[in-house]
From TrEMBL:
<feature type="domain" description="Ig-like">
    <location>
        <begin position="175"/>
        <end position="262"/>
    </location>
</feature>
<dbReference type="InterPro" id="IPR003597">
    <property type="entry name" value="Ig_C1-set"/>
</dbReference>
<keyword id="KW-1015">Disulfide bond</keyword>
<dbReference type="Pfam" id="PF00129">
    <property type="entry name" value="MHC_I"/>
</dbReference>
<dbReference type="GO" id="GO:0009897">
    <property type="term" value="C:external side of plasma membrane"/>
</dbReference>
<dbReference type="Pfam" id="PF07654">
    <property type="entry name" value="C1-set"/>
</dbReference>
<dbReference type="InterPro" id="IPR037055">
    <property type="entry name" value="MHC_I-like_Ag-recog_sf"/>
</dbReference>
<keyword id="KW-0472">Membrane</keyword>
<dbReference type="GO" id="GO:0006955">
    <property type="term" value="P:immune response"/>
</dbReference>
<dbReference type="GO" id="GO:0005615">
    <property type="term" value="C:extracellular space"/>
</dbReference>
<dbReference type="InterPro" id="IPR013783">
    <property type="entry name" value="Ig-like_fold"/>
</dbReference>
<dbReference type="InterPro" id="IPR007110">
    <property type="entry name" value="Ig-like_dom"/>
</dbReference>
<dbReference type="InterPro" id="IPR003006">
    <property type="entry name" value="Ig/MHC_CS"/>
</dbReference>
<dbReference type="InterPro" id="IPR011161">
    <property type="entry name" value="MHC_I-like_Ag-recog"/>
</dbReference>
<keyword id="KW-0325">Glycoprotein</keyword>
<keyword id="KW-1003">Cell membrane</keyword>
<dbReference type="InterPro" id="IPR050208">
    <property type="entry name" value="MHC_class-I_related"/>
</dbReference>
Amino acid sequence: MVTGVTYENGTYQYAMDIRLDGVRIGRYSSDTREVTPMLPWLGRALGSKYLQERTKEFQAHEQRLKEMIGWCMQQDSQRGGIHTGQVHIHCSLSDQAPVAPRFQFAYDGQDLISFDNQTGTWVADVPVASQLKQIWEKESTWTQYVQFFMRDDCLQTLRSLVQLRQWVLLSPVLPEVSVSLRDAPHGPVTLSCRASGFHPRPIHLSWVRDGGDVLAETSSSGILPLADGTYHTQSSLEIGPRPDGPRYACRVEHSSLPAPAL
């Protein structure tokens, strides 16, 4: 889903969400002007060169949507205020065969025009879009790009992402580990160790005091599945209110690690 918003003061915001099977895997926005992977494994799997190429492409899309909103505002009797343009791009596979691709442009919440992938033509959803249909069909470069994207690029990208996900889930994925402290007034201190984004499922978190003694955790979340096929877990340890006492560390054991890590 691509969203652009033009404000009354002339400022413009743009955001693109990239999803795989309903899971948000990437984002681009006018604030960062770069593609940001939302899953730990995705950036490593795609590589910096691929992300840089997509960033340049999405920067061009940002300008294109701004122009599309500007055209709609010119046709609108109420040009002031806030106006929104959205492009819904969707492609799917069933046993590697493409199913019902979609390229739909909406303005201020109303579907305006869509692309018919079978005929390679634009379909005006409302009368005002008939003029836009004529403009885009004369502008063959834009129509050819959309047709190429829907018939080739979107599907190839989808196949690649599915294969990458399968490859990742067959390979060990390092956990991302963080430790936090919660200090209750006049009460015990609670240490929390979180490990997220790891695969395969088995993992062991334990607490070490002064580099030696292994302590039993106070509570655990168990190992929970995440939407991207990886896992998350949290272990907590309650200790006495002793700021100058022993030092504690979280010990992580997982098949992706060559040795237990602190």
